[in-house]
Design a protein that fits this description.
This protein is an alpha+beta fold. It is built from twelve helices and eleven strands. The model has no long low-confidence stretch (mean pLDDT 89). Residues 19-151 form the YqaJ viral recombinase domain. This is YqaJ viral recombinase family protein.
Length: 330
């Protein structure tokens, strides 16, 4: 259940209005936390800092095409999710943590069993991230919301490819909350309030921010050897280390897979050391190996892997890619 003593609801504002934009700058929203933890490429501590300190334009409130459809379909996803769960929903506005006013949360719904709701409209090629799991970004959002509201559980409802709804219940994980809350505290204290620029990272978000703040002008620029030598050495060393690290990682991964001998997890006693993590379905290999099944389950736009999984779970498992998920162990 949510706990109203943990939060206050901010005055409701119209999406895209100056008041709405200003409220978003007053704290860290749940969609920004994954970037503070370094889990996404489209946002970063640097770009969030630029927005919060008004050094770069904040969210304009004007939707991209994908954002438009996400907002347009949110009520439909919410309605169907509630029907399938047998629950009713309330729609609060933006919530602010009383203990940590810099933590803001805009839920997609409060459900009648006390859980939170997060709705997602996603493309068909993201289906693997919803197969018995939810994307990390959505899980981080919900745990940020569970901290702000005191909720003990939440639901993620993802509409995949416009024709398949996956719903997952997420229980509150205190270890995850203990990871994200200090990250929000440090960022707000050490960078926003202190007005200190965070380090620029290798994300595409930071590349876009650098290009925006330093547009192309052409020509030559004279710098000192001291300014460039360290970065030049760092970049070249990173290039070589990246190549070597990939070879070592691939070799270690292959050895771990051999040790797993086809199993899903490796345990030492009761401790899970390694598990497999679902990835994209290898459609090209499946097409080459099983042309008749491929033709049977191909629609006009894509291979229907959901139906294939339901009808032929053994075949689906054979062609679904996996990655290794190494756990923190003592």
């Amino acid at each position: 259940m949510t706990n109203p003593h943990f939060y206050q609801e901010l005055p409701r504002t119209e999406h895209g209005s100056p008041e709405w934009l200003e409220a978003r700058l007053a704290g860290i929203g749940s969609s920004e936390v994954s970037a503070l933890l370094g889990l996404v490429d489209w946002d970063s501590p640097y770009t969030i800092w630029l927005r919060k300190t008004r050094r770069a334009p904040a969210d304009s409130g004007v939707d991209t095409e994908s954002m438009f459809w996400g907002r347009a379909l949110e009520p439909v996803i919410r309605q169907v999710a509630c029907e399938r769960l047998g629950l009713t929903v309330e729609l609060p506005g933006t919530l602010q943590s009383i203990e940590r006013p810099h933590m803001l949360y805009s839920p997609d719904g409060f459900l009648s069993d006390g859980g939170l709701l997060e709705t997602k409209n996603t493309a068909w090629f993201m289906a693997g991230k919803w197969d018995g799991q939810i994307p990390d970004h959505a899980e981080i959002q919900l745990h940020h919301g569970m901290y702000v509201t005191g909720a003990t559980h939440a639901y993620a409802a993802g509409l995949i490819g416009g024709n398949r709804l996956e719903i997952a219940r997420i229980e509150r994980n205190e270890k995850l909350i203990e990871l994200l809350v200090p990250a929000c505290d440090r960022f707000w204290r050490d960078f926003v309030l202190a007005d200190v620029e965070p380090p620029i990272t290798g994300t595409s978000a930071d590349r876009g921010a650098v290009d925006m703040l330093h547009p192309f002008v052409g020509g030559d620029l004279q710098v000192t050897r001291q300014q460039i030598s360290g970065l030049h050495t760092e970049y070249r060393a990173a290039q070589e280390a990246e190549k070597a690290a990939k070879k070592r990682k691939d070799a270690a991964g292959n050895k771990i897979r051999a040790l797993m001998d086809g199993h899903s997890r490796l345990l030492v006693g009761d401790d899970v050391w390694v598990s497999t993590k679902g990835g994209p379905f290898r459609s090209t290999q499946f097409r080459d190996d099983e042309p008749e099944l491929f033709a049977e389950y191909s629609t006009r736009s894509a291979l229907d892997t959901h139906e294939l999984r339901e009808d032929h779970p053994d075949v689906y498992a054979k062609y679904r890619s996996t990655s290794l998920d190494l756990k923190e162990v003592a």
